[in-house]
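Exam prep: given the inputs below (a chain plus 5-O-phosphono-beta-D-ribofuranosylamine), describe the expected output before reading on.
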Amino acid sequence: MNRRPTAILISGRGSNLAALLAAAADPSYPARIALVLSNRPDAAGLDRARTAGVPAAVVDHRTFRGDRAAFEAAVNERLDAAGVEIVALAGFLRVLTEGFVARWQDRLVNIHPSLLPAFKGLDTHARALAAGVKIHGCTVHLVRAGVDEGPILAQAAVPVLDEDTEATLAARVLEQEHRIYPPALAALAAGRVRIAGGRAIVTGAAAPAGALANPLPAPAAPPTPSTG
Ligand code: GRF
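Solution:
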């Protein structure tokens, strides 16, 4: 099988990277992780890559002193040297220029911790709590020039509970991120994604039955035993 050489771009922890590495350890997974690239030398995800035996590189944005184009040229150089065809952003905290996004059009994918188009940008869990939404989640999407914009490949929803803190909500969402990112990247790598009128049509995937509602009606009280 022709596995598409894929780079994963990170800035930190790398738990989504770990999920993608685990999926790609299966030789039938349609993407091969050819490179993990971080803009921060201290990103914990770099160790995950090395442990998995995947080439890891650092292009430190600080050495480019705000020159985004030069930073991205250095990133592209690494990607090209590794023969990369698909780029997956996984907690990569640099905004990319239109030029970079155009170069990787429909081959650049991101995961965002909200149900887009709600809560673009940062602090999504705190903002979801402040807004009082009852359902929150995560989105895998193709990247377009606008921040957190682009055709949606997959989403997962979770309930927001009354007792949630930012941390508990983030953890519930993160679990779903790890669940939906590997199959979404697989669909892209396998050529099962078609763009139609700004929407992504993903073929060869099953749609779940049922719906998530929160809160549910209170369970009926058990009948009181008669004393007669
Ligand atoms: C994730 O919540 C992802 O959705 C967001 O940044 C976070 C990265 O976490 N873009 P990790 O580095 O993958 O653990």
